[in-house]
């Protein structure tokens, strides 16, 4: 189990070297390929490269009347009162993003090179591939999944503006 300090350290030390140039699709499923580079503590002069795919489901608009049904299971009276207030807000909408990390697409390789050289080489490979759906992430080995989730949350945040703008253009949001 990861400790709070390890979690915070991983969050603070996750760096996206190459970010996908595409955002999460507003009306369809989106898949992002990632390469996550970490330094194992027990392998001096080596880096661990993990490759995989993150699948983003189509984002959904949650209208106020559905928020309490989806988000408040097991909450008490005050939370229910807050949900009632939200339901009365006609211009209040939440976006719901669903992600799944396909572990079947995950591969892991130990590379015998220093981190800086590996980052430069992988960055060049990705730029030469010219794939708008690929990311290169530098992270912490013991908490690499936290690093991946941090990347995912940042991707959601970046995509939300584009998704909302598209829904407004089409008249789904005021």
Could you explain how this protein is built, in words?
This protein is α+β, with helices and mostly antiparallel strands and 174 residues long. It has 2 domains: 120 residues, no CATH class; 37 residues, no CATH class. It is built from 5 helices and 8 strands, in the order H-E-E-E-E-H-H-E-E-E-H-E-H. The strands form 2 sheets. Strands 1, 2, 3, 6, 7 and 8 form a 6-stranded mixed beta sheet that branches. A hairpin with an 8-residue loop joins strand 2 and strand 3. The longest helix is centred in the last third of the chain and has 26 residues. It is globular, with a radius of gyration of 19 Å. The model has no long low-confidence stretch (mean pLDDT 83).
What percent of residues adopt helix (DSSP H or I)?
40-55%
User: How many E-type strands?
Assistant: 8
Largest sheet: 6 strands, mixed
Q: Which band does the percent of strand residues land in?
A: 15-25%
Report how far the terminal alpha carbons are from each other: 44 Å
Oligomer: single chain
Overall tally of domains: 2
- Write the element-wise H/E pattern from the N-terminal end onward: HEEEEHHEEEHEH
Mean pLDDT: 83
Please tally the helical runs, counting DSSP H or I stretches of 4 or more residues. Answer: 5
The coarse overall form would be globular
Radius of gyration: 19 Å
Fold blueprint:
Elements: H1 4-12, E1 15-18, E2 30-38, E3 47-56, E4 60-62, H2 64-71, H3 77-88, E5 94-96, E6 99-101, E7 107-111, H4 115-129, E8 134-138, H5 144-169
Parallel strand pairs: 2-8
Antiparallel strand pairs: 1-8, 2-3, 3-6, 3-7, 4-5
Helix pairs in contact: 2-3
């Amino acid at each position: 189990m990861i400790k709070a300090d390890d979690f915070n350290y991983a969050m603070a030390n996750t760096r996206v070297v190459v970010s996908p140039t595409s955002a999460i699709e507003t009306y369809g499923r989106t898949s992002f390929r990632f390469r996550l580079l970490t330094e194992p503590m027990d392998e001096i002069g080596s880096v661990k490269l993990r490759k995989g795919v993150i699948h983003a489901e189509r984002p959904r608009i949650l209208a106020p009347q559905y928020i309490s049904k989806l988000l408040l299971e097991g909450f008490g009276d005050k939370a229910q009162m807050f949900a009632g207030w939200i339901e009365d807000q006609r211009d209040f909408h939440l976006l719901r993003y669903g992600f799944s990390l396909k572990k079947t697409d995950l591969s892991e390789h130990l590379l015998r090179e220093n981190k800086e050289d590996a980052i430069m080489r992988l960055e060049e490979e990705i730029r030469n591939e010219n794939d708008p759906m690929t990311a290169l992430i530098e992270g912490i080995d013991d908490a690499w999944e936290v690093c991946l989730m941090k990347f995912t949350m940042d991707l959601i945040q970046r995509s939300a503006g584009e998704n909302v703008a598209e829904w407004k253009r089409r008249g789904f949001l005021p």
